[in-house]
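TOKENISE THE FOLD
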Amino acid sequence: MDEKIKTPRNVRWIGDAKERLQTFPEPVRKDIGHALYRVQIGEAPPSAKPMRDIESGVFEIVDNYNTDTYRSVYTVKIGRSMYVLHCFQKKSKRGIRTPKKDIDLIKRRLRQAKEMERDL
């Protein structure tokens, strides 16, 4: 049986996304890390959902732990790399919408990722 080995995409972390992910509880870091790895090798993790408030090709991974919700936002639509744009704990108690300050930050970082890719 000849199984094709997938070459993982490079991961580029924008802003403080990686540092913020490292502050999450260990089970959340493991879950999100595993999901991001699946994205790297071209798979779609079940926990990934499109972020409709941003633009096509931007996804979020959602993980719940001890009544808290943690999110990691990424895109693979820019070049050949995977860009992790933002990692955060959702603190809003009003519905499931992502807070405007986080949406604005993700949009800024998406623009930054596109500029980085152009400069490569």
